Amino acid sequence: MIKAVIFDMFETLVTHFESPLYMAKQICSDIGITESRFREIWDATDEDRTLGKKTLEDVIEMVLLANSCYSRELFEMIIKKRKQSKIECFNHIHPQIIPMLTTVKKMNLKIGLITNCYFEERNVILGSVLYDYFDSVCMSCELGLSKPDYVIFQKCTQALEVDPDECLYVGDGGSFELEAAQAIGMHPIQATWYLRENTNQPAKRKDDFTQAKSPMDIILEIKNHI
Q1: Helix (H) or strand (E) holding 153
Q2: CA distance 38 to 82
Q3: Alpha-carbon distance 226 to 206, whole Å?
Q4: What is the rounded CA–CA span in Å between residue 146 and residue 47?
Q5: 3-class SS at 75?
Q6: What is the rounded CA–CA span in Å between residue 189 and residue 52?
Q7: Which long-range contacts (CB under 8 A, 24 or more apart) does 185-194 make?
Q8: What is the per-residue burial (b if ≥16 Cβ within 10 Å, else e) of 175-202?
Q9: Gap between the Cα atoms of 50 and 143, Å rounded
Q10: Which residues does 88 contact at the CB level (< 8 Å), separation at least 6?
Q11: Cβ distance 96 to 216 under 8 Å?
């Protein structure tokens, strides 16, 4: 019997791709260096940013200094634009997300969040319209753990006081999260409502998993497991 639903955040509850992007391509353009040059540091520090060992500010400063183009004005502009882009994601939430989460709550089920995220994303999540729906929040940058490490899934189920086989796990499929959730006994569902084929979105359709085409399909999946 399902007692909890655990969600991924990005490309599941919110998406980067319905609002203006401010990622590597856009940042290096503002700096005035090639993307390959920018990625030498940006990509190399991705894991450290995900695990909370480095902040956005740390890495942008590293990039600017390494390319001899540091100025306080440029640094602050990049930080502001990056953080604003994360805030903007939450202004383009699928219209069924809030009704779906509200319905899950009314079904007396617990709701968890497991997300690989950076500190600039963590701060936005904490202030978002979604945050109060969660009974447990496991963010990689806070815990020093990231998907697909089984431990971050176990920490969430322990906080919710449920067993893995009592949980639906809903995610877009990035970071091998569906495979990890399945391996520890959860019931994984691929969220495809934000998925756009033939784009630069990192996750792709995974036909080996049950797919939800719209957020309210999660309610049907819950009922299928009762």
Answers
A1: helix 150-160
A2: 15
A3: 24
A4: 9
A5: helix
A6: 28
A7: 186/6, 186/153, 187/2, 187/221, 187/225, 189/218, 189/221, 191/8, 191/11, 191/12, 191/215, 193/94, 193/96, 194/11, 194/12, 194/15, 194/17, 194/18, 194/94
A8: bebbebbeebebbbbbbbbbbeeeeebe
A9: 10
A10: 19, 20
A11: yes
The answer to whether 223 touches 187, Cβ cutoff 8 Å, is no
Tokens of 105: 């709550």
CB atoms within 10 A of CB 111: 18
The radius of gyration computed from the CA coordinates of the chain, to the nearest angstrom, equals 18
**Residue holding tokens 């990625």?**
39
125, two tokens: 């999540």
In this structure, what token pair is assigned to residue 207? 């036909």
Sequential pLDDT tens for the chain (226 residues): 899 999 999 999 999 999 999 999 999 999 999 999 999 999 999 999 999 999 999 999 999 999 999 999 999 999 999 999 999 999 999 999 999 999 999 999 999 999 999 999 999 999 999 999 999 999 999 999 999 999 999 999 999 999 999 999 999 999 999 999 999 999 999 999 999 876 677 778 999 999 999 999 999 999 988 7
